[in-house]
Amino acid sequence: MRQRLFRIILSLAFSMMTVVTGMASEPGQGTEIDKKVLTVGLFRYVPDIKAFETALTAQWKNIEPDVTLRFVDWDCYFEEPKSDVFVFDGLYAPQYIEKGLLYPLGETIPARSAYPDWTLEQGYSRGTYYGIPQMVCMDTLFYHKEDHAVSRVQTMQQLYEAIGPRKTQALLPGRDEGVIADFSLNNEMKYYNILQDHTGKVVPVQAMGDVQADAMQYLKELYAMTGTATGRYDDGNEFTRAEWFAQGHGRALYAYPEAMSAIVRFG
Question: Which fold has domain 12-136?
């Protein structure tokens, strides 16, 4: 049975949650300095993290003008939290809760009804919330509006039938060939994404089990549409491929929604 590939919902493993750590000062605790500075760790894998810092600082001044925000440099994939408030990949929520790294927010959160239930599952334990969803990363297919064949695609198999394998193996594909995708590292995550796209269900990392033949076939088809040179290229910039697509390379781009910023900027 064919499942829809490009779903709005994807596992909370790729949803970013804003949380307060157990180190956050409560009223009446900490030094005077602690009370006037709030350390914040943002999710670093965005096109313009400075824009996040600027917007948050401006809005925060309207709420707590006497408390300064100090942003710390951290990577949720390689280190544990080191700030009062931080944004991280929801994949780690159960682990952080178990270690006591998150401050309990209570039995409910502001505007609870605004969030789909599935976005709250990882940050909820034993009747208590430990995080608030901030943004969701999902596999997204970007394509040219005049490409009607691709606009009708609903599955990876249909995408492969519409585009087929790369016509050339050049680093930069022509406008009429290929799907630009990132295979520079984390191939396991690519399989994980496609597995959930294929089944249409949230699959905890710990419950992935044996490799599913259909999902692996779809991964192979995506790689064939991308090509080795394009897929394995790595310059340390997560949004280079979005820039390529904006400049007219490739028939489609398979990336997270954050790529839209780069497409608009360089298109």
Answer: D-Maltodextrin-Binding Protein; domain 2 (3.40.190)
The pTM of the full predicted model, rounded to 2 decimals, is 0.69
- Sorted by sequence, the CB contacts under 8 Å of residue 229 that are 6+ apart come out as 169, 170, 171
| Distant-in-sequence, close-in-space partners of 29: CB < 8 Å, separation ≥ 6 | none
At residue 134, the 3 state secondary structure works out as strand
Q: Write the pLDDT tens digit of every residue in 111-140.
A: 889 888 878 888 899 999 999 988 777 788
pLDDT tens, position by position, 157-166: 899 999 999 9
140-266 belongs to CATH 3.40.630.10: no
Within the chain, residue ranges assigned H as helices are: 32-36, 49-63, 93-99, 148-151, 156-163, 187-199, 213-226, 228-232, 240-246, 259-266
- Strand 179-180 to 252-255 pairing: parallel
Which residue is listed with tokens 């009429």?
176
List all residues 6 or more positions away from 107 whose beta carbon is below 8 Å from its beta carbon.
127, 128, 129
Q: Parse the chain into domains and list their residue ranges.
A: 12-136, 140-266
Scanning 122-212, the segments in alpha helix (DSSP H) are: 148-151, 156-163, 187-199
DSSP string covering 71-89: E----TTTS---SSEEEEE
